C-alpha cells in the first residue's frame, strides 16, 4: 500500500510539472525599475456630459496598488489630475519582486470597483514573455455605456502593450482629397502611396513598432473570413483570422485557404516610435507606405499591413488590416 501511495505521489508530481512545459529559469527583476500604468481617461467622464461620446461612469479617484515581496506601493489618481488625451500615464519607481497589481476606482456615489492581475491571460499572444514578475507595463480601462447603467460596467487590467484588435488603423490610399489620417496636406498622396495612422488603446509614450506588409491579389478578409461577406468562407479549413501570431506575422506566414501568405518588414533599421514615426518635430503620427517602385503594378490589388509593437522584452502584433491599393 505504501509503495502504491509513493508511486501515486511521484506520478502526480510528474503530471503537475508537465503542466508548465516552459518554466522561466532566467533572471527575475527585483531591482530598482519603473512600473508604467496607462489609465483610460474616459472612466473619469461624467454620465451627464452633453454628447454621448463624452460620457463616462464619473469615477472620482483611482488607487493602484503594486504588490511586491518587499511591500506594497500605492499610486493615486483623482479626476482633477487626469492628463490631456485618451490615457493618463503613471510611472512609479519600485524595488522588489512583483507579485500582483490591484486597482480600485470609486464613483461619486461611493461605489468601489476593483480588479487584480497576477499573470497573463491565456488568450494573450505575447512574444518575449518571461514571467509576470518581470512585467513593467499595464493598462487599466472601464467598460460600460450610457444605454444601460454605468454602474453595471467593469474594470479591465491587462499587461501592455495591447496588440491584436486593441490597435486599429486609419488608412488613406492613393490620391485622397479628404484625409482620414493626420498625414499632412503639404505632402499629398499620389497613386501607390498609403498613409497609415495606428490608433492605440493605450498611451503611445515609450512604445515603438516595426511595419510588416504583403501585396495580395484579392481581399482575403472579405473572401475567407467566416460570417463576414462570402458564405463559402464558413466552410474553409484555413479561414482568415484578423489576429495572426507573432511568428505568422514576422516569419512563417499564415495559411489561408490553400495558400501561405508571408509578410515582410517594411521599415529598415530600428523600430519606429508611435509618436511622430516619420521624424521628430513633424507633428503627425501617421507613416507612409510607398509602393511606387514596385515592378508589378499594385494598383487594384490589396495590401496586408500589421505593426509589431515593442516594449522592453515584450513584442505584440496588431491585427492584420487589408486595404485596396489605389
Low-confidence stretches: 2-7, 9-18
Structural class: mainly beta
Major β-sheet annotation? 6 strands, antiparallel
Multimeric state of these chains?
A: single chain
The end-to-end distance, rounded to whole angstroms, is: 77 Å
Residue fraction in strands: 35-45%
Helix content: under 10%
Query: Which overall shape is indicated by the principal axes computed on the Cα atoms?
Result: globular
**Number of helical segments with 4 or more residues:** 3
Can you give the mean pLDDT? 91
Got a strand count?
Answer: 19
Please state the CA-atom Rg, rounded to the nearest Å: 23 Å
Q: Provide the succession of SSEs.
A: HEEEEEEEEEEEHHEEEEEEEE
Provide structural commentary:
With 326 residues, this protein is mainly beta. It is built from three helices and 19 strands. It is globular, with a radius of gyration of 23 Å. The termini are far apart. Mean pLDDT is 91; it is low at 2-7 and 9-18.
What keyword list fits this structure?
six-stranded antiparallel sheet, single chain, 9% helix, 326 residues, mainly beta
Q: Topology of this structure?
A:
Elements: H1 2-18, E1 33-40, E2 59-68, E3 71-78, E4 87-94, E5 98-107, E6 112-117, E7 137-143, E8 154-159, E9 168-173, E10 193-199, E11 208-216, H2 220-224, H3 246-252, E12 254-256, E13 259-261, E14 264-265, E15 272-273, E16 287-290, E17 302-311, E18 314-317, E19 321-324
Parallel strand pairs: 1-7
Antiparallel strand pairs: 1-4, 2-3, 2-5, 5-6, 7-8, 9-10, 10-16, 11-14, 11-15, 11-17, 12-13, 17-18, 17-19
Amino acid at each position: 500500500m505504501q509503495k502504491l501511495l509513493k508511486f501515486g505521489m511521484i506520478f502526480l508530481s510528474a503530471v503537475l510539472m508537465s503542466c508548465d512545459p516552459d518554466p522561466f529559469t532566467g533572471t527575475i527583476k527585483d531591482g530598482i525599475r519603473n512600473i508604467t500604468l496607462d489609465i483610460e481617461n474616459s472612466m473619469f467622464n461624467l454620465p451627464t456630459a452633453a454628447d454621448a461620446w463624452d460620457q463616462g461612469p464619473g469615477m472620482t479617484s483611482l488607487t493602484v496598488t503594486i504588490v511586491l515581496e518587499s511591500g506594497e506601493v500605492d499610486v493615486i489618481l483623482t479626476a482633477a489630475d487626469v492628463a490631456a488625451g485618451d490615457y493618463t500615464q503613471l510611472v512609479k519607481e519600485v524595488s522588489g519582486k512583483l507579485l500582483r497589481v490591484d486597482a480600485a476606482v470609486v464613483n461619486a456615489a461611493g461605489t468601489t470597483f476593483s480588479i487584480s492581475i497576477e499573470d497573463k491571460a491565456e488568450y494573450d499572444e505575447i512574444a518575449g514573455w518571461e514571467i509576470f514578475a518581470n512585467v513593467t507595463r499595464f493598462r487599466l480601462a472601464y467598460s460600460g455605456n450610457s444605454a444601460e447603467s454605468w454602474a453595471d460596467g467593469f474594470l479591465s487590467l491587462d499587461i501592455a502593450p495591447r496588440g491584436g484588435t486593441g490597435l486599429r488603423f486609419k488608412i488613406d490610399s492613393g490620391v485622397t482629397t479628404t484625409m482620414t489620417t493626420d498625414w499632412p496636406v503639404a505632402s499629398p498622396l499620389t497613386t501607390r502611396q498609403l498613409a497609415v495612422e495606428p490608433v492605440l488603446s493605450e498611451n503611445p509614450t515609450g512604445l515603438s513598432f516595426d511595419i510588416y506588409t504583403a501585396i495580395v491579389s484579392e481581399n482575403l478578409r472579405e473572401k475567407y473570413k467566416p460570417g463576414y461577406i462570402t458564405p463559402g468562407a464558413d466552410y474553409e479549413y484555413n479561414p482568415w483570422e484578423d489576429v495572426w501570431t507573432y511568428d505568422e506575422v514576422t516569419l512563417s506566414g499564415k495559411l489561408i485557404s490553400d495558400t501561405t501568405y508571408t509578410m515582410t518588414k517594411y521599415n529598415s533599421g530600428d523600430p519606429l516610435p508611435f509618436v511622430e514615426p516619420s521624424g521628430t518635430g513633424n507633428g503627425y503620427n501617421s507613416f507612409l507606405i510607398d509602393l511606387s517602385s514596385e515592378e508589378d503594378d499594385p494598383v487594384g490589388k490589396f495590401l496586408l499591413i500589421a505593426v509589431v509593437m515593442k516594449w522592453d522584452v515584450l513584442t505584440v502584433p496588431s491585427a492584420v488590416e487589408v486595404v485596396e491599393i489605389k
